[in-house]
Amino acid sequence: MPGLRLDIREQAGIIVAIAAHDGVHRIDDRGHLHLPLAVRRWCRLAAGDRVLFAADRAAGVLVAYPLAVLDRLLADAPVAAAGGEAA
């Protein structure tokens, strides 16, 4: 929702935004969340880099997965899907 205040943190290259009454960051009037420069630097994101967002509205949590993190997390997925063992 526009105006929602958030606390934004980084954990293992993943950006986690949690609804917080005293949050420094907020959803703008258009419903957009602009990631501050410090957050982009934590995750080595350049302006325009794409991320995958996942939200749990009931818990008030928004998670952003940079593509490099998704590559790492999904590296063994094809092997596991084919019935093999992940490395």
Give an overview in words.
The chain is of the alpha+beta class and 87 residues long. The chain has one domain (5-81): Pemi-like Protein 1, Chain: D (Ribbon). It has three helices and five strands; from the N terminus they run βββαββαα. It has helices spanning 37-42, 67-73, 77-81; strands at 5-11, 14-19, 25-26, 51-56, 61-66. The protein has a five-stranded antiparallel beta sheet with strand order 3-1-2-5-4. Strand 1 (5-11) and strand 2 (14-19) form a beta hairpin. The longest helix has 7 residues, at 67-73. The radius of gyration is 15 Å and the shape is elongated.
Main beta-sheet annotation: 5 strands, antiparallel
Instruction: Estimate percent helicity.
Output: 10-25%
Return the string of H and E elements.
EEEHEEHH
CATH class: Mainly Beta
Strand content: 25-35%
- Straight-line N-to-C gap: 41 Å
Q: Enumerate the spans where pLDDT stays under 50 for 5 or more consecutive residues.
A: none
Which structural category do the helix and sheet elements fall into? Answer: alpha+beta
What's the average pLDDT?
A: 85
| Total strands | 5
Shape: elongated
Count of helical stretches: 3
CATH fold type: Pemi-like Protein 1, Chain: D
Major β-sheet strand ordering = 3-1-2-5-4
Summed up, the domain count is 1
In CATH terms, what is the architecture? Ribbon
Radius of gyration: 15 Å
